[in-house]
Amino acid sequence: MLKVPIQKGDYVLIDYVAKVKETGEIIDLTKEDVAKEARFYREDGIYEPQLVIVGEGWVLEGLDEALTQMEVGEEKTVEIPPEKAFGERDPSKVRTVPARELARRGITPRLGARIEFDGRLGLVRSIGGGRVILDFNHPLAGHSIVYEVKVVSKIEGNEDKVLELLHRRFRRIPKDRFKIKLEENVLDIEVPEEAFTLEDLQYAKRGLVIDIQRYMPQIQAVRFHETYTIKKSEAPASQEP
C-alpha cells in the first residue's frame, strides 16, 4: 500500500476522541458510536471526520505537530502536554473580588459557575467572607490531553478543497448539495435552497470568502448564486353551468 505522509499545509480529514489524561474524561470527539457509548452524545451534535489544514492552528499545537508525523490511514494515540494543549495554570489569573462588587454589577455568583467579569470569563472557585475567588485560567489549563486520532483522508484538488471549506461553514448541509465551478481564478457557488433559511447564512458566506482569501489566494473572486423556485398553485378547475 502506498504511504502518503502528511505535511504542513495539507488538507486532511481526521477522526478523533480527545480525553483529559488525568481523569479519562472525554472533552471532544468526532465518532457517533463512541459518543453514544460514553453518553457524550447530543441530538444536535455533528459526528463526522473534521477538516484540518495542517500547521494552521485549527487544532491544539501538539496535535498539529503529531499530524506531520503521520500518514493517510494511520491511527495513533497522541499525548499532548499542557504547554502544547491549553497552557499551564497561571496563578496570576486567579483573582479575589468583593461580593458587593459583583452585586453592584448585577452578578449573582454560584459555586462552579462561569461568569463574565471585566470582559473575561472566570470560574467561581469559592464564595465566603464577602469575597469571591474567580479563576480566569482555561478550564483545561494544566492538564495533558490524550488524542486517539486517525487520518481518514487527504484532500487533493482545488474544487474538493473548496467543498471541504464550504462544509466547514455549512456543517448541516450535505456537501453534494453545493454546485461549484472554478474557472480562470473565479469561483462560482450555487447555494442550495435548504441553506436559504439559515440564520447565519451571510456570516457563513463571509467566513468562506475569508478562508478562500487566506488559504487559496489564487482565487480572485467568489460569486454566490441563489435561485429561488416559485411554486405556483394549480388553478381551480372550471365548473360547467
CATH T-level fold name of the largest domain: Chitinase A, domain 3
- Rounded to the nearest angstrom, the distance between the terminal CA atoms is 79 Å
Mean pLDDT: 94
Query: Beta-sheet strand percentage?
Result: 25-35%
Over all CA atoms, what is the radius of gyration?
24 Å
The number of domains is 3
In CATH, the architecture of the largest domain is Roll
Number of helical segments with 4 or more residues: 5
Number of strands: 12
Shape: globular
Low-confidence stretches: none
DSSP helix fraction: 10-25%
Largest sheet: 5 strands, antiparallel
User: Which sequence of SSEs, written as H and E, runs from N to C?
Assistant: EEHEHEEHEEEEHEEHE
The secondary structure category is alpha+beta
CATH hierarchy, class of the largest domain: Alpha Beta
Give keywords.
241 residues, alpha+beta, Chitinase A, domain 3, Thrombin, subunit H, Alpha-Beta Plaits, 3 domains, 5-stranded antiparallel beta sheet, 5 helices
Structure description:
The structure is a single chain. This protein has 241 residues and is an alpha+beta fold. The protein has helices spanning 32-37, 61-67, 99-104, 158-169, 201-215; strands spanning 11-20, 26-29, 50-53, 75-80, 94-98, 114-117, 120-128, 131-135, 145-155, 179-183, 186-191, 221-226. It has three domains: 1-88 and 140-155, Roll (Chitinase A, domain 3); 91-135, Thrombin, subunit H (Beta Barrel), CATH 2.40.10; 157-235, Alpha-Beta Plaits (2-Layer Sandwich). It contains five helices and twelve strands. Strands 1, 2, 3, 4 and 9 form a five-stranded antiparallel β-sheet that branches. It has a four-stranded antiparallel β-sheet with strand order 5-8-7-6. It has a three-stranded mixed β-sheet with strand order 10-11-12, covered by helices on one side. A hairpin with a 2-residue loop joins β10 (179-183) and β11 (186-191). α4 (158-169) runs antiparallel to α5. The longest helix is centred in the last third of the chain and has 15 residues, at 201-215.
